[in-house]
């Protein structure tokens, strides 16, 4: 009986030690390693999907980056119907191009625009209704060779 109790006690201690070793192991985030490889600071990552999107405020500047070919930056806007002004500038002196799409959640696209070769995009569009709008900032069709840092600002009725 003493041997069984001692064996169970030894097993319990061994299991508890191995559990704490596993608990100490950090969870690996593949997205983080991709971001680190690009050496670009993007405080909103991971935001490649609307479920991870950061809500933005009107008349506030945001800095982010397209880090690689598969990177899509997604932001959300809660706005009332009316004028939506958007401005984006590529902060690097690169020829990499990006694309901006805005649509109301669950509906058709409100606007999609390519950032010009000089790295700038400005547009004004009339939002048809109050609600959540999703803003996608993507690499253009051609592959990007290096990260593309950018800044943007939107002005809208909150």
Brief synopsis:
The chain has 158 residues and is an alpha+beta fold. It has helices at 2-24, 30-38; strands at 54-55, 60-66, 73-79, 82-90, 98-104, 109-114, 120-127, 131-139, 148-155.
Which stretches are low in confidence, meaning pLDDT under 50 for 5 or more residues running?
4-39
Distance between the terminal alpha carbons, to the nearest Å? 73 Å
Sum up the overall morphology in one term. globular
* Fraction of residues in helix: 10-25%
pLDDT averaged over residues? 77
Structural class: alpha+beta
Assembly annotation: single chain
DSSP strand content: 35-45%
Count of discrete alpha- or pi-helical segments spanning 4 or more residues: 2
Description:
This protein has helices at 2-24, 30-38, and strands at 54-55, 60-66, 73-79, 82-90, 98-104, 109-114, 120-127, 131-139, 148-155. It has 158 residues and is of the alpha+beta class. The strands form 2 sheets. It has a 5-stranded mixed β-sheet, with no helix packed on it. Strands 2-9-4-7 form a 4-stranded antiparallel β-sheet, with no helix packed on it. A hairpin with a 4-residue loop joins strand 5 (98-104) and strand 6.
Give the topology.
Elements: H1 2-24, H2 30-38, E1 54-55, E2 60-66, E3 73-79, E4 82-90, E5 98-104, E6 109-114, E7 120-127, E8 131-139, E9 148-155
Parallel strand pairs: 1-3
Antiparallel strand pairs: 2-9, 3-8, 4-7, 4-9, 5-6, 5-8
């Amino acid at each position: 009986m003493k041997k069984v109790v001692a064996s169970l006690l030894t097993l319990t201690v061994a299991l508890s030690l191995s559990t704490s070793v596993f608990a100490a192991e950090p969870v690996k985030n593949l997205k983080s390693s991709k971001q680190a490889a690009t050496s670009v600071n993007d405080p909103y990552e991971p935001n490649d999907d609307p479920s991870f999107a950061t809500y933005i405020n009107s008349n506030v500047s945001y800095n982010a980056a397209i880090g690689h070919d598969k990177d899509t930056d997604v932001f959300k806007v809660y706005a009332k119907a009316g004028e939506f002004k958007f401005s984006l500038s590529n902060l690097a002196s690169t020829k990499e191009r990006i694309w901006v799409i805005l649509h109301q959640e669950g509906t058709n696209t409100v606007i999609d625009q390519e950032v010009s070769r000089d790295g700038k995009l400005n547009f004004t569009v009339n939002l048809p209704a109050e609600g959540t709008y999703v803003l996608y900032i993507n690499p253009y069709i051609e592959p990007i060779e290096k990260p593309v840092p950018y800044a943007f600002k939107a002005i809208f009725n909150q």
